[in-house]
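Complex record, three chains
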Amino acid sequence: MSAFWRVVWIVAKKDLAIEARSRELLNTTVFFALSCVIVFSVSFVGEGGDGRALGDAAAGILWIAIAFSGTLALGRTFERERYGDTLRALLLAPGARPAVYVGKLVGVVGLLLATEIIIVPLVALLFQARLFDHTLLLAALLGFGTVGFACVGTLFAAMLGRARSRDVLLPILLYPVTIPVMIAGVRGTAALIQPTPQLDMARLWIMLLLSFDVVFLTLSLWTFESVMTE
Amino acid sequence: MRKAFVPLLAVAGFIFMTAPILVTRAPYESTMGLVQKIFYFHMPPAMLMLLSAIFCGIISAIELIRKRPVYDWIAYAAAELTVLYGALAMVTGPLWARKAWGVWWVWDPRLTMSLLLWMVFVSYLLLRRYGGPGSETLAAGLAVFGMATSPFVYLSVNIWRTIHPLTTVVPTLPVDFALPLWYAFTGFLLLYIALMTLRVRIEEQRALVDQLYLESEE
Amino acid sequence: MSVDFLDLSIRELSRHFGRRRALSRLSLECRAGEIVGLLGPNGAGKSTLLAIVSTLAAPSSGELRYGGRTAHEIGAVLRARIGVLSHDLHLYSELTALENLVFFGRLYGVPDPETVAARALERARLADRGADLVSGFSRGMRQRLALERALLHNPRLLLLDEPFTGLDDASTVALIARLRELRSSGCITLLATHDLDVAEVVLDRAVILQDGKLVAIEPDVRGLRKRYQERLSAGARP
């Protein structure tokens, strides 16, 4: 068991080391998320002085930005493993192959969480949304939601590794399957920023996200070896 | 299985030819009148789409474990039929809904789940078509994940939409309606099986041709 | 827990992608302490064979046994005894040479990876470039580094795909010497190459593939260049 986590740690640390050097993924992902938020805000902010977003659009904009920038980040993460065909090198290592999956997953989740740390305050600012009144619940929503999205995304991005049309196929495959994450994330966040926050609803959505995470992490671990064998 | 195709098609054809008789003779539903009769051609495809999706998911899971080509053929056929029947349901559904409820679409749990499931299988077909070699295994993974996400979609939309209750609800089914419904359902089911056998046979023949091609160069 | 084996047995191995046949009923036996060459034109199936033997790909039919046991029976630890030098080199351009070696050393559970990596750098004659990013290396330098990466964990089975491409004479000589060393320590080496002159010098046996089929096994590699052309034009009848 500890051999498994050792491999996870080694892979994740390597991704961190590469990223720390250039910060390319972090910078581009964060900036892309920012652009998403701004573009969507322009579309959804209503008429009138206070610039409030229509309805719960703030929550929606946040999660769409996460989904879009997440898709790009996934594509880029596995693009890196294509240069020297290093993904196959990782699969050749003696440990259990799912450990490689978890190692990459840790990197992707870390990247997305770092992005969220920057865009969540931005969304709160732009839409006067009181996101930080219940920081713990918000963190749980974002945390479990990000893990659920990344967990399916990492598997799909890895398995599309050298497929044709992989850039467009990733979102095509990923978005329908992760719709529950989007619904739960958006509705949960919206519940938090209501004039009277609905904490119970938010907790319910968090539970849904948690069960999604458990189911899909398990499924991914089971199927990883199978889909990665040529 | 091969020989069943023509008889299946014949029986299905007979059912479709005679179904309108039963449908006409079925009583009118109180609020919706004539329009409700689309239901007999809407519900069977909708139900079969869901069953077909589950079937594809299960076969794909087996395919990932056992990796025999025949599972791949069946999964591919099931995915195509899911998309076909889903398209049928989603054309007849809104037509009925518009007349019966006044709206083309509602975001209720069942509809949303069906829509998402349909989209998953459309993306399955896109993957098979445009993904290049090796996409059989990838598609099998997708089918399994698609099936796994459906209960979550249903649940999440259920929680979401119960806050805003629907203005109309699909009625429960009195006995008089049941006969034409199940008659039509049987027709669609037999058609499904007939198309499935045909499609699997096509894949089988294709594999056979590939095999002959390979052997001819030995 | 470790595993070891002294022979590699390939029986009736086939791999096809729909209509395209990559390998067709290939049979081959290899023993510890020999260097077997895989020769043949592009598309002959050399890379596919190496991919299957390395456990990255699965065959369509046939059997592959490592010391009498299949990969499935042995499990993931089998990969600890296999080293691969692929065409794409398996190196991270964004890491330094030393970091690459240490990373793979750790991944393979090599004890004291830093020391082993430093020694490997010396063998690759890159000791002075250890702290430089691989992105700045020439093809030949990367090749030398990639070879050392493949050998870090003392594999029993070494799979090399075109290892002599892009090497200068000095490096070629060094690689040949290294392969001979490995042979005497009992390594099984499967080497795919286009370079017939080097093949004559380094191989114990040569296996000629064409269109996925095994066309000839040459137990004696002297005069290989001449016989190679003859074998290929003779086609499918060995």
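Note: The two ends of chain A are 26 Å apart (CA to CA).
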